Structure formats: C-alpha cells, structure tokens
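task queued by scheduler; priority normal; single chain, no ligands, no partner chains; default sampling; output format set to structure tokens
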Amino acid sequence: MLIVRPARLSDLDALERMARAAHPVLHSLPRDRGVLETRVALSEDSFRADVDFPGEEFYLFVLEETRTQALLGTSSIVASAGYSEPFYAFRNDALIHASRELKVSRKIHALTMSHELTGKSRLTGFYVDPEVRETTHDDAAHLLSRARMMYVAANRKRFSEDVFSLMLGVTDAAGVSPFWEAVGRKFFGRDFEQVELESGGRSRTFIAEVMPSYPLYVPLLPAEAQRVLGEPDEGALLAYDIHLEEGFEPDRFVDIFDAGPVLTVAVERSSSVVANEIRVVRSAQGNAETALPYLIAAGGAHEFRCALADLPSARTQGAPLSDDVKQALGVADNASIRCVPLHQASGELQ
C-alpha cells in the first residue's frame, strides 16, 4: 500500500534519483547531493522540533510503497515563505485609465512585483514518479499532495492562517515558457531552468534587483505571453484539480517567472479542517458496509503518517482498518485518527 511519511536521511539515494528525474527542476529538491542532504536534515530537525509559530522550518514528505519500500514521490511545506528574504510574485492589478475630454475609460491589467505572500505557508516540491502505475496514479497524487494539508490541519501552530501554492505555468514541448521568453529573459538574459535553480524558491534579493519595480502593462506583452497568464501547464492540471478539491482558489497573484497561477486557502476553510472527522480505530470485520475512500492521518507532529483507506460513511461506525493499514499508520485498536473524505460533494465546503 502507499503511505506518506516524513523523509529521512536514509532516503537520500532515492531522493537524489527523483531530483535528477524531475522536470522542470524542483528548487525544494536540489540535484546537488550535498545541498539535498542539508535540506533533508533541515526537514528532520523541523519534524522533531517543538514549534509555537512558523519560522524557517521545512517539511519534506515522501510517498512510499510499503510492500517494496520504494519511494515514488515527494512533496513539501515551507512553514514561512521568504523567511530570510522576501518571497516575490506578480500581483495582477486592474488600473483605470480615463479621460473626460475623450470620454474614454479603460480598465488595463498590469503586473506589479509584490512580496505580499511573504510569511505565508507554502506547499511546494510536488513530484510523482512516472513509474507509478496508471491505475493508481491519481490516488497516489491525491494522497501525496493532500497529506500536506492533513499535517497542517493537525499542527496549526506550525503554519500561518493562510496557505498558498504555485502551479507550474505553461511551457511548450521543449520546456520553454512563453511568459519567461517575453519578460524574464529580457531582464536576466538566462534560461528559465537556470534562474529557477538560483532563485531559492522566489526568495532571492537578485529578483528585486533585476526585475522591474514598475508595473508591466499586460496589453503590451506578446499575445502568447498574455494567453498563458495565470494558466497551469497541462502537466500540472491534476495537481491544480487536487488543490481545488482541498479548497484552494486562484488568487490575484501569478508566478514571477512563468506566470503560473497562485492558489490560496484559509486553513480554516480547507477540506482537511472543514471535513475532518476524529474516529476510533477498530479491526475490520469484512462486512458489506457502504464504504468511501478517506485520507487517514496519524502519528502527531513528529511521526506523521497518512494513507488512503475505505471507511464506512457513518462516522459512528468508527474506523475499521485492516492489519496492513494499522501497521503502516503505526496505530492499534482504540487509537484516535484524523479522517477526511477523499472527495467532497459539490458545494460541501461553501
């Protein structure tokens, strides 16, 4: 079965393999082994620490197949984006240009560099190994992505009241971003992937030093760059839909490099909080109860585990789990676990 758990230094070889396979590159999963080892060590320290408010903590999760112990994906949380340096994004503003004499009033969209997302918690580093079987890929992606919000919901003091996530912007078959070619390259004079690696997750001072501080008027951009503004790449559509199911919504910000959408959610309104059920574990009896897929989390802040399992829709029936699931989660009968339906009925989170 598949389970999400905190990454360990013993996972370093598998993490390095995934870092080198990930395209586009993930700044949260650096390809340099030494830097990667430092990131994993920081994650281990973050999970172990007693935290009263979000700071420089970084939480790295892995998706593990418990039968083979193979690692099939990663995801992560930055407790406070731009903790040491501001986090930069473009804010999509609507500016009014009007002339009483000409009887003209036009609303013009403009992109203004902003660091308003600084200090908010960020979901990042999402990667699912292409070797995950097609029949289980969507469930694996849901589990890997949404386990992060299960952790946030269970450990509120460690994170901000609002969480955001950057979706990959549109790129062509060669990995070229039309928005980067129209904007970023003009100022940096480098390839997108090179600057992505150097940007530190959009929190490096050189961004403010090089990118324009004045608004970029959207109608003056090439048509192809305008077309992709705020649109997720085809390869990010599944992740986009998973975020929407968790309760995230598009915000007025877009990524400063590829113009991908920024999705935000107030933790209080996320599915992992609104639809949370605390259930008591019991042994599965193999009866024919009507069951639905649930995200199930256990282990607290330090030994977090999250898996998918079918549970009866009535919470009064508790959480009948097989021995394999109980072992993977590290729980026994009569233990309390957090449970959230994998899919919500339309409008349920309104």
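post-processing summary
- The longest helix spans residues 134-154.
- The domain at 276-341 is CATH 2.40.40.20 (Barwin-like endoglucanases).
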